[in-house]
Amino acid sequence: MTTVIETRGLTKRYRGGQLAVDRLDLAVPAGTVFGFLGPNGSGKTTTIRMLLGLIEPTAGSATLLGQRMPRAARAVLPEVGALIEGPALYGYLSGRDNLVRYDSADPTADPRTRRARVATALDRVGLTAAGSKKAKAYSLGMKQRLGLAAALLRPRRLLVLDEPTNGLDPQGMREIRTLVRELAADGTTVFLSSHLLDEIEQVCTHAAVMAQGRLITQGPVAELAAGTRGRLAVVTPDPADAARVLKELGLTGVVVAEDKVSADPPPPDADPADLNAALVRAGVRVRAFGVERASLEDAFVALTGEGFDVAG
Ligand SMILES: Nc1ncnc2c1ncn2[C@@H]1O[C@H](COP(=O)(O)OP(=O)(O)OP(=O)(O)O)[C@@H](O)[C@H]1O
């Protein structure tokens, strides 16, 4: 399997002294939708800037499509579509004319086929009907889609998207996610950063998890959570009693939601059968009892010992 992004010991310390990325070893296999997950401030944008050759690493190396960055930027970047920190658009131009501008800025783009390329890109992101509208009249979601269209004006082997759904409403988020899946189905490798765990679980085949500039884990999404115990869940007509007993048994994070009581994963030495027996002994009527499948969030908490929403 070839890797389209590879970093070794990649490190960035900003001038003020902030260590934003700390000895990162990342390997993104070709053909994946690769989620780059981490709370705000964990170093995702800094990493992406180094990958694209926009800033120099303090130490370590980054290769993109097999070539060293930033040295190979001129050769490699034409094959990489990027959307970082919202697209730069001319508000007074229509969406279509914004794309014409982008296309004209590409010296390798044939002007004779420009109109057709722009039309195809607009169509790809579902903006054909809104193509003549001024960009300043676009919603945030439409602006993101126009940015994606710009990244798709020529065939790309890799798309790098920094928080593509940030600030979008649920409908806008769904549209971008659907688009990402379609692009991946066409064979483009997509590397997308996000601070949303469920987004990564929904669209990504693989993920790397960052916290405070360091890589916590990476691999297929299905495997990341596999080594982690899930939450304990009890369905009962006596939820208040069940919650009390679970707390007395030393379980943490006890949450009651109607007839379901859940708790943080029990410690490895606690046999779920004993917990169930203790509930029944205390007179709690148990309808269902089990350990749920671990989510990526459970894995993150287990790996870092922290909640996911920590700021770096
Ligand atoms: N230009 C800069 N100069 C100094 N420090 C910076 C600079 N850019 C980012 N940082 C710091 O580096 C750390 C990592 O920031 P970065 O933007 O890479 O994280 P992130 O994971 O992309 O977060 P977010 O999702 O909030 O963008 C943060 O502590 C941030 O304050």
From TrEMBL:
Q: Which domain of life is it from?
A: Bacteria
What Gene3D superfamilies does this protein map onto?
A: P-loop containing nucleotide triphosphate hydrolases
- The UniProt entry's coiled-coil ranges are none
| Single GO MF descriptor | ATP hydrolysis activity
**SMART domains on file:** AAA
What the entry lists under PROSITE patterns is as follows: ABC_TRANSPORTER_1 (PS00211), ABC_TRANSPORTER_2 (PS50893)
* Membership in a protein family: Belongs to the ABC transporter superfamily.
Name of the protein this chain belongs to: ABC transporter ATP-binding protein
Taxonomy-wise, where does this protein's organism fall, top ranks first? Bacteria, Bacillati, Actinomycetota, Actinomycetes, Kitasatosporales
